[in-house]
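Format notes (please read before filing issues)

Several people have asked whether sequences and structure tokens are stored in separate files. They are not. Every record keeps both together, in the order shown below: the sequence lines, then the token lines. Line labels are part of the format and must not be stripped during preprocessing.
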Amino acid sequence: MIKKTPILILAIVVISAPWLYGQYLSYSQRSAIVNSRIEAYITPPSTATHHSSGLKFMILENGNNQPTNDANTIVRSRSNVWVSSENPQNQNEDGLDATDPIDLEVSHPFLSEILKASSTGAHYLWWVDAELIPEGTAGFETENTMIDIFVVDRVAPLPAPDDVASIPSYATITEDGIGYYLLSDATTGAHPTRDDMVEVHYSGWQTDGTMFDSSVLREETNTFPLGRLIAGWQKSIPLMRVGEKARIWIPGDLAYDLREDRPNAPKGMLVFDVELVGISPKEEE
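Then the structure lines:
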């Protein structure tokens, strides 16, 4: 019992006086306390603040008190997502290590509201009722959800290339209608197959110049099983050698237009700048 006392005291401080403990604990330490006492946090307490959007929140650590309503701002955050069920589980496998840029303009409406209202440098718990989560929203179940989120910073989106509006005449067009243009080439790198894992650095834009995703803003590459990506990537990335950079125009039917499981994904033709960093065999399942 004596060994548990400091944890109990710390947990009480977390709930009752966020401004007091924030200067002593890091985000990871605060989240560890939340995770260890998830039963106490999975539903909003009576002291939670009601937001105009219908969401509820609690501030665990104040930031710079400057939330943004700029729809073009890219927000980088770290988060854990918990579902309000009998056995709540963390849905974000990357958890506290994930610093993903989120474009407020193309994000899920409820997540956009959360980030617009959250100050940079602040740590929040947000509660989202199931009816506010559209069916098929990627990364979320349509259940009452608690989001443990820390807003790292806000950055400007990467400017779109001048040729995103349509496939330019200097690009090669494949038989599937994909536009392809090498930005830098390599003569000795290997080509991936759909059975490979591909390590890439990439940014993606819609044809109006809106950036919707970027590993460049995350400042780290991503590794994917190529065979599980959108059809446009499966057909175009094998054209590249390791070490090459390419601009790829993917028609909507080879991107997300036909994906009923991704209702909030960007629609229409998408344009990607992709650097193929590496290839590795797909792990056996």
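For reference, the curators noted about this record: Confidence is low (pLDDT under 50) at residues 1-23, 91-99. Residues 172-281 form a domain with the Chitinase A; domain 3 fold (CATH 3.10.50.40).
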